[in-house]
Specification:
Strand content: 25-35%
Radius of gyration: 14 Å
Strand order of the largest sheet: 1-2-3
Order of helices and strands: HEEHEEE
Number of helices: 2
Helix content: 10-25%
Distance between the termini: 19 Å
Length: about 100
């Protein structure tokens, strides 16, 4: 996440939003970058989607962790990126769009 934010021009410290659910950062040229961590949101937001909708607008690049239970509120276009551990320090990255 930190690497992606740096590539998008974010200069601020990038931290995990586990307890805050979401953080918003300012990147280059007015770009907004959002980082949402929905790990603690065990059930679909449904009527409470307003809690995160401000982070998912068309002018924001949003990175959402633990999104499967919230897939219904995530607007297109979107990519799904899955990371998995391999032997040693290896990782596999699968991107679907």
């Amino acid at each position: 996440m930190r690497g992606a934010c740096r590539a998008l021009g974010v200069q601020a410290a990038v931290t995990s939003p586990t307890f805050a659910i979401a953080h918003r950062y300012h990147g280059r040229d007015g770009l907004l970058v959002a980082h949402l961590d929905l790990y603690r949101v065990a059930t679909p937001l449904g009527d409470d989607a307003d809690l995160v909708v401000d982070y998912l607008d068309a002018m924001t690049i949003a990175f959402v962790e633990w999104a499967p239970q919230q897939a219904g509120i995530l607007p297109p276009p979107r990519l799904t990126v899955e990371l998995s551990h391999r032997d040693g320090d290896g990782r596999a990255i699968e991107v679907r769009g």
